[in-house]
Amino acid sequence: MPEQEKKVIILTAPSGAGKTSITQFLLANYPQLAFSVSATTRAPRGAEQDGIDYHFISAAAFEAHIQQDDFLEYEMVYEGLYYGTLKSELNRIWAQGKTPVLDIDVKGAIAIQKQLGNQALSIFILPPSIEVLKERLANRNTESPEKMQMRLDKAEYEISFSNQFNAIVKNEILDTACKETAALIQGFISK
Ligand code: 5GP
Asked: What CATH code would you report for 3-189?
């Protein structure tokens, strides 16, 4: 694939903003997009599958990837838990003639934007409000109150960076947010 066609779509948002639902909509409806599977040291949750949702790896394996310069970016997103975008993942997707969709945190998104410039389209998914975010996280019910509070604090912090991205989509009504995101991506890919 020619260098200028190696594009990436970055979706970033506080957890609970609906980023996963929007990502699933995009992947189901746009076959030219493919999910960039991050590596993480956190344990799988619920029905998550290794190699599909994440590459679930040990801290030692993650450290080895860092040493080998395998990551385009990596972050300790939560206390003690690492997440990273593997260069090999992007190359795998580009080799298929597709565009990778990255679901990553705000810091990772900014790091990739800096490296890839115009090759990247970064979209920040904004929750309607902190109250709605709280409800969504509570309904998810997969974590302890402490962990939930940790995510909420991080959400407020992340929202303060929202104006650093190419576009902001407010997820008030999921269907509308999905269509808005898809339109932005189509505009970017056809450029
Ligand atoms: P979760 O544990 O809920 O799956 O993800 C926690 C956060 O880590 C989310 O904001 C998600 O977007 C982010 N994340 C997932 N993969 C990566 C990655 O490769 N790099 C960075 N920087 N963040 C990631």
From this structure: 3.40.50.300
